[in-house]
């Protein structure tokens, strides 16, 4: 079983696994039916203040990553919940971490998947 990372706007949607959205705000233009989500863990996303500060400015990404990881460390309950779900679901199916950002390399989902991969000793597809 694999941990996957995918933009929620990708067509066709990868439905081969347990789908978790990790954005604090619901992605525009995506209906809840078409999202095919198993779980929306909005609380694991960056705080509103951090999200607004970052504004998807790639130059701020290194500091965004540092601040976001600090938020996860300071309030681990939501990350630990995500980690437990991923660990449980990977026993029987793929897990797909979903996000809405246009930039596929500089967003919170990338950071989460890197952290999950490290913490759970996983491979990513």
UniProtKB/TrEMBL annotation:
Pfam families: DUF488-N3i. It comes from Limosilactobacillus rudii. InterPro entries: YeaO-like (IPR052552). This is DUF488 family protein. It comes from the Bacteria.
């Amino acid at each position: 079983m694999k941990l996957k990372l995918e933009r929620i706007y990708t067509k066709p949607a990868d439905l081969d696994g347990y789908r978790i959205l990790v954005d604090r705000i619901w992605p525009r233009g995506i209906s809840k039916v078409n999202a095919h989500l198993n779980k929306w863990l909005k609380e694991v996303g960056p705080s509103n203040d951090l999200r607004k500060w970052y504004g998807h400015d790639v130059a701020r990404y290194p500091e965004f990553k540092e601040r976001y990881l600090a938020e996860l460390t300071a309030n681990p309950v939501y990350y630990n919940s995500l980690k437990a779900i991923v660990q449980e679901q990977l026993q029987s199916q793929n897990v797909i971490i979903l996000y809405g950002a246009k930039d596929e390399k500089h967003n919170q989902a990338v950071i989460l998947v890197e952290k999950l991969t490290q913490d759970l000793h996983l491979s990513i597809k």
